[in-house]
Amino acid sequence: MLARSWRSSVGVAAALLVVACPFPDAARASCAAPSLSVLDAAVPAMTPGDVVIVEGRGFVDGCDDGGGGCTADETEPATPYADVTLTLRQGPRAWTLGTADASEAGEVAWEVTVPAGVTPGRAVLVPDVGSPLVVRVRR
Question: What's the pTM value of the predicted model, to 2 decimals?
């Protein structure tokens, strides 16, 4: 008897959920993670001492990907990140290149000087939020 009562309660709760928050007509998209780019190159190359601009997109907490509530008419707030730190990592070494605030659109940019101690080869630009970007250091 207890099992039947429990199943009935679950069924009623599920029915109420569908009535209170029906499935939307359109599929919802998911928001992209924050990402970086340098000079729109697939694998950017840089030399120690170069001044480069590293750009980022999607640096917001939350996003409006089709509605934040039960209907597509409701918006989900997106708050731009503040003080996003950019680090250059190469092997066990790391250099903090700077911090920047994202715009309302989630865009951020750092104007940085490639550190003198970076050696030729692979390195990675790493924001404290989002996806890293592999770069090549040349002589």
Answer: 0.70
